[in-house]
Amino acid sequence: MSDSAHATRRDHRTGLLYALGAFGAWGVVMPVYIKALGDVPVLEILAHRIIWATLFALILVAALGRGRELRQLLVPRTLALLLLSAALVTVNWVTYIFAVAAGHIIETS
N or C: which end of the chain has fewer CB within 10 A? Predict the structure, then answer.
């Protein structure tokens, strides 16, 4: 088998492991974690998620030296599309967190 075939197989295996990890995190770990935060309001959980994800993303952008590329995205059309996608993701997350907090863990997973 050639080196590129080995690399492709390795990439497929790595992708499969990442997918299984993501499915496990979203399907098992996240619902259990959110349910454990039972007394915390849904919007507070969402606010923390937004704040910490933004902070982490900015640190990652800075660490990778991609600030210039980020600034290039700050044009009105791109910003509008980013705001639209952020609004849709927010609706998705509010629904997910609320459903888990309301005891619909199996349905959300």
Answer: N
Which ranges of the chain would DSSP assign to H, the alpha helix? 3-24, 30-36, 42-63, 67-72, 76-101, 105-108
Q: What is the mean pLDDT of residues 71-85?
A: 91
- Which tokens belong to 45? 């959980």
46 CB contacts (<8 Å, ≥6 apart)?
90, 93, 94, 97
Q: How many CB atoms lie within 10 A of CB 94?
A: 14
Q: How confident is the model over 30-53, as pLDDT tens digits?
A: 888 888 888 889 889 889 989 999
State the virtual CA torsion across 18, 20, 24, 30 in degrees, nearest 10.
Answer: 30
Please answer whether residues 21 and 14 qualify as being in contact, where contact means their C-beta atoms are separated by less than 8 angstroms: no
Residue 47: how many CA atoms within 13 Å on its side-chain side?
5
Angle at 43 between CA 20 and CA 109, to 5 degrees: 25
The amino acid occupying position 14 is T
